[in-house]
Design a protein that fits this description.
The complex is a heterodimer of chains A (about 250) and B (about 180).
Chain A lengths: L2 H12 L5 H13 L1 H18 L11 H8 L13 H21 L10 H14 L8 E2 L3 H7 L20 E9 L2 E10 L2 E9 L8 E5 L2 E8 L2 E7 L3 H13 L2
Antiparallel strand pairs in A: 1-2, 2-3, 3-4, 4-7, 5-6, 6-7
Helix pairs in contact in A: 1-2, 1-3, 2-3
Chain B lengths: L11 H10 L4 H12 L2 H17 L9 H21 L29 H10 L2 H12 L4 H8 L3 H20 L1 H9 L1
The chains are: A alpha+beta (about 250), B mainly alpha (about 180).
Chain lengths: ~250, ~180
């Protein structure tokens, strides 16, 4: 590979957009060419600075509500008789009280979710990324994946192929979280994997909340007697979208 | 009525789908508007317009990547706004597929993580098309394929455009002192 070519490819290499052969060729060139290696180092520095400097502007609080109010047509929730501003004032008050209460609670009482379960779920997802551990049953067909769990669990997890929503089903496996055997459904999103852990909810346990642990996003919810926890390195909105699709599907 | 004509009002069912599939990408929509337009209130207004537009054309979205679909609309709204309010003239500089050679500069790049202000200033000096492509790639984490879909450009253009955008940014970050001194004169 010439320097000229490597120079253009360098960016596809940084972005993980070269195929295996392209990467191998590029790596070979790098070993022989200190100029290109230095250029790569510089670009990596810029990229790291961009990604780790809190440059992302999230939508301000209130914008979502304002937009949902402005969309014409019937809403899922009705706010009859309460003007928008009053509604907002009530929402703001609730938020302030919630934040104050939250702050007054000690770290031990601050448990919006089962922390141990989340850490275990993230660990289980990480283990699954080891070569050969992603799925026990590899299939994009929900009618193959669902029966595979028969006899392995004391419940039948809901399995949907969500390829139409850009979350193709890739397969399933068994995992152990908090000493309980759970189903793990594996979905794809672009080049990333998502584990959706499913367990039968018990009166003592329900999973909820969302957050980031060890660089992985997770979000948890409960529906129809099941607890769900999705873990992945995709963005938080992507995971939220998956959760909403699960909540809407029958 | 043709199936893909805009609708003013979605059924309750479609509205629930809209809120479930499109609204989670509100942050992405706002972030892109903010970087393209600069100001907070402009970004809020244009984001709101774009989402209303997405709502009206939701029946043209059948399946696929909702974020890319929404960002495509957001981007168009931002450029319309810039043309109307900032007399911005859209010159497509990204079509040039050549990548100029990296200049060897004696100074090494002095940039660290959390140098937020300097990075912001440098990004703001780039033209909107170059800034947009960096925001989509580095902040939003879009793949080349997604950036191509959002910006309606061929995949091949994305790589060279990113290369040029990064080179420009790097140049802006390597000579901050001279640049500022020049501005003060």
């Amino acid at each position: 590979m010439s320097c000229e070519l490597a120079h253009t490819r360098l960016h596809a290499y940084i972005d993980g957009e070269l195929d295996a052969n392209g990467s191998a060729d590029f790596n070979q060139h790098l070993r022989a060419c200190p100029t290109c290696a230095a250029a790569l180092g510089e670009q990596e520095k810029v990229r790291q600075a961009l990604q780790q400097s809190r440059l992302y502007s999230r939508a301000p609080a209130g914008l979502k509500l304002r937009i949902e109010e402005s969309l014409p047509g019937p809403r899922a929730k009705t706010t009859v008789g309460i003007g928008f501003w009053r509604w907002l004032a009530v929402a703001a008050t609730v938020l302030i009280v919630a934040v104050l209460t939250w702050r007054q609670l000690g770290p031990d009482e601050r448990k919006p979710y089962d922390q141990a379960a989340v850490v275990a779920a993230v660990d289980a997802h990480l283990r699954s990324l080891q070569p050969g551990h992603l799925v026990d049953v590899q299939s994009t067909d929900q009618h193959t994946v669902k029966p595979w769990f028969d006899g392995k669990l004391d419940f039948a997890p809901p399995v949907h192929d969500l390829a139409a929503n850009d979350f193709p089903l890739l397969g399933g496996r068994l995992d152990v979280i908090g000493g309980r055997t759970v189903a793990a459904l594996v979905y794809g999103r672009r080049k990333h994997f998502i584990s959706v852990f499913v367990e039968k909810s018990a009166p003592s346990s329900s999973w909820s909340g969302s957050g980031e642990t060890q660089g992985y996003h997770w979000t948890a919810w409960s529906k129809d007697g099941f607890n769900f926890c999705a873990v992945s390195d995709v963005s938080a909105p992507d995971l939220d979208e998956l959760k909403q699709i699960f909540l809407l599907s029958q | 009525m043709p199936p893909d004509a805009p609708t003013d009002v979605l059924s309750q069912n479609d509205r629930s789908r809209f809120e479930a599939i499109v609204m989670p990408h509100l942050d992405a929509a706002y972030n892109l508007s903010r970087w393209l337009l600069g100001g907070r209130s402009e970004a809020e207004d244009v984001t709101q317009d774009a989402i209303l537009r997405a709502y009206r054309f939701f029946n043209t979205f059948h399946s696929g990547d909702a974020r890319a679909w929404l960002l495509q609309i957001v981007r168009n709204c931002c450029y319309t706004w810039l043309k109307k309010n900032r007399n911005w003239v859209d010159v497509d500089e990204l079509d040039d597929a050549s990548v100029p050679r990296e200049e060897q500069t004696p100074e090494t790049l002095a940039i660290s993580v959390n140098d937020r202000e300097r990075l912001t200033r440098a990004l703001e000096q780039l033209s909107p098309h170059f800034r947009e492509i960096l925001v989509l790639r580095e902040l939003e984490g879009c793949s080349y394929k997604e950036i191509a879909a959002i910006t309606s450009r061929p995949m091949g253009t994305i790589m060279s455009a990113l290369a040029r955008a990064r080179q420009q940014l790097r140049a802006l970050l390597t000579e901050p002192v001279t640049r500022e001194a020049r501005l003060e004169l």
